[in-house]
Amino acid sequence: MSAAPLSLQGIHKSFGAKQVLRGLDADVRAGEIFSIVGPSGAGKTTALRLLDLLESPDAGRITFHGKSYPIRSSESLAQRRRMALVMQNPTVFRATAFENVAYGLWLRGVPDAELRGRVFAGLDFVGLLEAAKEPAEKLSGGEQQRIAFARAAVLNPEILLLDEFTANLDPFNVRLLEQSILRYRHETGCTVVIVTHNLFQAKRLADRVALLLDGQFVEVAPAADFFDHPARAETRAFLSGEMAY
User: Fold this and answer.
1) pLDDT (0 to 100) of residue 72
2) Which domains does the chain have, with CATH numbers?
């Protein structure tokens, strides 16, 4: 049996005296949408930054198909180029929508004809083809987040990491981005890890859901079981609102 595309094994992470993660364990399966939920301050974004090789764990291993990579090594850079991260607040450059989506492809030296085709396809995928020549910084917040998603998608990542990627957006853009995620996973087989406060979003999108609490995953289960038949008292308390965000 081949190794899981993404695995966390006994991950510990502290910042100063504050221990954020304490023995995090999970295997993320190929092609699934894996959602991490939990109270504010539980360490969800820290976990995502570790997965994107932006931070090193203090202990434990993160492996990709069974291999781990030292941070800031040439090997970790190669692995990061097989992933893409979309943050809560979209970053757009003072350039057109087309140029924003093209940026990662330019860095990778993609030939111009192929680059143009992939960028236009990416813009069309998120419904912004007509905005290709528009200054990205003048687009709405929802449109900028769609630009950020397109910029990640055109890289054809094996693993897509999403950190509260629809927080504070209007329902139209939330729906469009969620549909884009489901369609993208269906068409490419990409493995997706989503951090979200929106339990309804996790229920709509995820194949499996993990509750992060006190630095550990206290329950990891298929979405239907997680929401309808949670096994742990902590999960039931979290879902019922007895545990504050």
Assistant:
1) 83
2) 1-81+206-245 (3.40.50.300)
